[in-house]
Every structure is written in structure tokens, then in C-alpha cells.
């Protein structure tokens, strides 16, 4: 948990929640604030399985997954390629679109070009190509006189290219996929204007409606798109797909797939699991068991057979 990305604080919260859950289940847990000496720490520790609760760059983009592959330590969530693909918004959109899932248009532009003049007709969205938690995201409204200038300030650390795509009006939706199966649809109603970092993690920043109050056919499309995107990227374990639904024009698009979604009892993926009858501790156990089993080890108990010996 922790790590080096802009989502470090969120990761610490996820990591503490998952570690607490595993300890409640009787596991022996070592809590590692992941730094550049991670390989040395893990080599000395020799864990049976690594629960990767990192979010964002380095921890979610295939880098740490490569370290764990090299050390031959079973780890949770998606592998190297799926993680790298999903973190790169431009590449993942191409893969997802090829699987027949609608995605927003737009593309990658140099940040200085974007700051000079509108590269798309407003409204549109400007965001880093490889960040999460809505870090560095700007919505350029319909009557905006100029693009966001923050992207050319010295404090900008999110790369020279930015993703610019049309803004889809309507509802913010999310679908968790567990073991390849979509769970349900959550509608997120932000209280800060849009679903930014504060809306995601601030106290009372947003309201979650689980399941979303949508027509059955829209629910089915959401579930289908999430499962197809998860499969197209080669994901495993638990992912969360973010979608937008324009209920006036009946336009549904998938924005991105998060390969390591937030993991607290009130996060979107655990909320959906709870709605399907899997409480937080059992969800964390399932993710850990899934990683352990894929690592080639046998004899681990399955959910429903849990005891203090379920996870070594």
C-alpha cells in the first residue's frame, strides 16, 4: 500500500482496510508502504501472496506487477499487460472499442497545443493519459472562453500528452466485475459539480445509488460493456468500469477500466459485492485466494470454508 503515485493517500486507506480484514480472518499480515526498495523488502519477507492495494502509476500500471512476477510471488488483481493497458487511456480505449464497446471520441494532444486553443468544440474533458482518481481532470464547459491553463503550469507532472474527449452529459455510473462477472450498476451523484477527487474521497462528497434506478435494458448494456472491457484488456480478479449515460439521447459510453479499484467498505466495488451478498471481509479473502490459487499453490480454503487457516 501507499506507494509513489498521486493516489498514495487513497492507497493507504485501501491497504489498511484490506489488511484489517485479513487479520480478522486469521491471516498473518505484513503491511508494506511500498518504496523503490520493494523488491528487497519482499525478498526478505518471502510472503505466500501479495495483496496489491496500490493505486495509480507504478503500482497499478504493470511496474510493480513486473517486480512480483520476477520474484515469483502470487499477487492480486490484473497482470503486467492488462495493468499497463488499462492505465494508458488511449491504448485501452482502442482495445475496448475493438471489442465493440462504445467509448468517447477525442484523442491525445500535446498539452501546450491544448492550452493555446480549443482542440474540440466545448464541452469537452481534458485529463492525464495515465492517472486515476480524477487527478488532473478538467471539464471545459460549453461557453468557456479558453482551455484550462493549469496543464502548462510548472506544477503539472502528468506528462506532455493529455487525453481530450467530448464531455458526455448525464449520469455517472460504475460496474464492478468479479471473476469475469459484472455485479450490478451504481449511479454516483456527486455533490461537488462532477465526480472529482473530493467527490470520490471527501466526507459526503457523493451519493451512491445501488443498484442504479435505470431501465432494465440500460442496466444490461452496462453489465455487458463492463464484462467485455474486462475480458478485452485481459483483466482478472476485481475491476471497476466507469461509464457515462446520457439519458436524454440514450448514449452510453465506457470511460475506463480500473484494475485496482478502491477497497474500503464504502468504496464502489465493495458496495456492489455487499449488494450481491459478499461482505467486505469475504471479498478481500476471495481476492487473496484467487491470487494465491493463480500463483500455483494448492490447498487454500474457498469462501464458505473459511477459518483461521484459510490464508497463510
UniProtKB/TrEMBL annotation:
Subcellular location(s): the record lists:
Cytoplasm
- Name of the protein described by the UniProt record: D-alanine--D-alanine ligase
Query: Into which family does the record put it?
Result: Belongs to the D-alanine--D-alanine ligase family.
Pathway listed for it is: Cell wall biogenesis; peptidoglycan biosynthesis
Q: Which reaction does it catalyse?
A: 2 D-alanine + ATP = D-alanyl-D-alanine + ADP + phosphate + H(+)
Residue span(s) of domain ATP-grasp: 93-289
Residues passing through the membrane, by range:
none
Q: Which organism is it from?
A: Phenylobacterium terrae
Amino acid at each position: 500500500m501507499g506507494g509513489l503515485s498521486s493516489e498514495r493517500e487513497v492507497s493507504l486507506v485501501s491497504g489498511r482496510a484490506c489488511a484489517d480484514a485479513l487479520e480478522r480472518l486469521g491471516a498473518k499480515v505484513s503491511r508494506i508502504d511500498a518504496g523503490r526498495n520493494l523488491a528487497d523488502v519482499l525478498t526478505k519477507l518471502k510472503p505466500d501472496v501479495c495483496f496489491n492495494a496500490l493505486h495509480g502509476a507504478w503500482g497499478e500500471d504493470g511496474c510493480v506487477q513486473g517486480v512480483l512476477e520476477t520474484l515469483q510471488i502470487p499477487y492480486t488483481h490484473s497482470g503486467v499487460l492488462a495493468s499497463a493497458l488499462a492505465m494508458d487511456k488511449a491504448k485501452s480505449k482502442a482495445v475496448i472499442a475493438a471489442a465493440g464497446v462504445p467509448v468517447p471520441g477525442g484523442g491525445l494532444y500535446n498539452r501546450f497545443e491544448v492550452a493555446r486553443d480549443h482542440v474540440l468544440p466545448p464541452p469537452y474533458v481534458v485529463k492525464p493519459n495515465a492517472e486515476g482518481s480524477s487527478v488532473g481532470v478538467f471539464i471545459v464547459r460549453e461557453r468557456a472562453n479558453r482551455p484550462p491553463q493549469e496543464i502548462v503550469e510548472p506544477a503539472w507532472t502528468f506528462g506532455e500528452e493529455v487525453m481530450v474527449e467530448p464531455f458526455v452529459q448525464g449520469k455517472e455510473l460504475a460496474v464492478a466485475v468479479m471473476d469475469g462477472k459484472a455485479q450490478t450498476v451504481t449511479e454516483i451523484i456527486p455533490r461537488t459539480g462532477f465526480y472529482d477527487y473530493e467527490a470520490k474521497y471527501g466526507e459526503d462528497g457523493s451519493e451512491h445509488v445501488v443498484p442504479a434506478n435505470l431501465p432494465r435494458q440500460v442496466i444490461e448494456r452496462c453489465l455487458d460493456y463492463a464484462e467485455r472491457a474486462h475480458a478485452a484488456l485481459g483483466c482478472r480478479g476485481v475491476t471497476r468500469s466507469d461509464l457515462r449515460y446520457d439519458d436524454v439521447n440514450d448514449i452510453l459510453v465506457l470511460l475506463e477500466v480500473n484494475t485496482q479499484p478502491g477497497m474500503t467498505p464504502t468504496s464502489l466495488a465493495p458496495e456492489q459485492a455487499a449488494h450481491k451478498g459478499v461482505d467486505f471481509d469475504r471479498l478481500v479473502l476471495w481476492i487473496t485466494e484467487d491470487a494465491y490459487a493463480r500463483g500455483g499453490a494448492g490447498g487454500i480454503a474457498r469462501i464458505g470454508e473459511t477459518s483461521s487457516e484459510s490464508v497463510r
